[in-house]
Amino acid sequence: MVLVFFLMITGSSTGWAKETPVWWPEALSEADKEGYALASPKEVSELYASGKDLLILDVRPDYEYRAGHLPEAKNFEIHLGDRLQMKPDKKKAFREILGQEKDRLIIVYCRSFR
Fold this sequence. Notes:
Blueprint: E1 2-7, H1 13-18, H2 24-34, E2 37-39, H3 41-50, E3 54-58, H4 62-67, E4 74-75, H5 88-98, E5 105-110
Parallel strand pairs: 1-2, 1-5, 3-4, 3-5
């Protein structure tokens, strides 16, 4: 399974095109150490346009998801503590969202890098 972690950029996406955020190099380094990849808003748009089988996972709280989310995104709130140990019932729900297809691309996004 390939995992792409997408950072949800607040504000306009045109700001990204003009200047790479100052935190981006550090985020790339952390992603590399942790075994996932980062995608810019442009790269995510290209993935949408590619027609590939994607799972878009919005890990923000449900009230933020209801306020607006990427097309076709599924909501699965993840807390910082879940990174260390996810409760069995939550782990089961997560596996259900992931489904049987283990080779598809998964895009995970939230409001902050953590």
